[in-house]
Specification:
This protein is α+β, with helices and mostly antiparallel strands. 28% of the residues lie in helices and 27% in strands. A 5-stranded antiparallel β-sheet has the order 6-7-13-11-12. It has a 4-stranded mixed β-sheet with strand order 1-2-5-3, covered by helices on one side.
């Protein structure tokens, strides 16, 4: 008798086998996930984590796959995309959002309740979990300034609360990165403001973003961290790299800090462009550009 597959074991959870992650990443690149699950609740998340632990499978969690490159070899074990866990609620000066909620939707909810200080995130395309994980920021603001705590799932499948101090935020960093925890929700502590002013600020920042960033093309967002004393985009521009292209991946002509998919790029194309940019900038200016984008998965097998 054939043993039950993961799909048979959890019929209420959407589970896909050997699914190309290029269908979900903002770069439209990435190899297959062995098992790709879309849990709709914490309980389903725990069921999938229990299965992975029983089978000794590695676990990878993906949010909105916006500031992410999945290598062309794909991801082994269990991958979970949490975008179906997307509830948002508010009470007094707090907004609580599931990890899979779009950060943009959280900014809209805050504005609708006249809550301010989240305007900087109005155009950030990531999920709440990804934004907390990476301490996402833009236009002088960052998640560390507005998140007071998060609920996380530990590797041994327990739900715990981490307060602001325990999240240990740094530049594009929080403690969850080292601890293999899964963010399941976050609490945003804001202040009462004026709804019209909040909306005007959001509109202004979104217009600024649209004028400066290549939003019309697939990309992984800002590729490099800001080096101390420099701007990554300016270094890349000054190195004459705008328009540099390998395969279908190109350093954006609109903003040098972005790499865009102009013609059926692969993740390998992206990684090769990143390596060339890093080498050229270091050779010309002696500055090492660290990647901000999260790079996961395995290299493709050579024939």
């Amino acid at each position: 008798m054939q043993s039950k597959t993961v799909v048979d074991l959890y019929p209420k959870i959407e589970i896909l086998i050997n699914e190309p992650l290029s269908k979900y990443t903002h770069t439209l690149t990435g190899g297959p996930a062995d098992i790709l699950a879309f849990p709709k609740s914490i309980k389903e998340c725990q069921e999938m984590l229990a299965y992975a632990n029983e089978q000794s499978l590695p676990v990878t969690v993906v949010g909105n796959a916006s500031n992410l490159i999945v290598k062309d070899g794909g991801i082994r074990g269990l991958t979970m995309i949490l975008t179906k866990m997307n509830r948002i609620s508010s009470h007094e000066n707090e907004v609580v959002a599931d990890a899979g909620a779009a950060l943009i939707d959280v900014t809209k909810a805050a504005q609708a309740h006249s809550l301010t200080h989240l305007e900087f995130a109005a155009g950030i395309p990531g999920s709440v979990g990804g934004a907390v994980f990476m301490n996402a920021g833009a236009y002088g603001g960052e998640i560390a300034n507005v998140v007071s705590g998060a609920e996380v799932l530990t590797p041994d499948n327990h739900i715990i609360h981490l307060n602001h101090q325990e999240l240990d935020f740094g530049y594009r960093h929080c403690s969850v990165q080292e601890n293999q925890q899964i963010i399941i929700s976050a609490t945003f502590s804001l202040e009462v403001g004026i709804a019209d002013k909040i909306q005007k600020r959001m509109d202004h920042l979104n217009a600024l973003r649209a004028s400066k960033q290549p939003l019309e093309l697939p990309s992984c967002g800002s590729v490099f961290k800001r080096p101390t004393g420099y701007f990554a985009g300016k270094l890349i521009h000054d190195a004459g790299l705008q328009g540099f292209q390998i395969g279908g991946a190109q350093v954006s002509m609109k903003h040098a800090g972005f790499i865009v998919n102009v013609d059926g790029a692969t993740a390998t194309d992206y990684l090769n462009v990143i390596a060339h940019v890093q080498k050229t900038v270091y050779d010309k200016f002696g500055v090492h550009l660290e990647t901000e984008v999260r790079i996961i998965g395995e290299d493709p097998k050579s024939n």
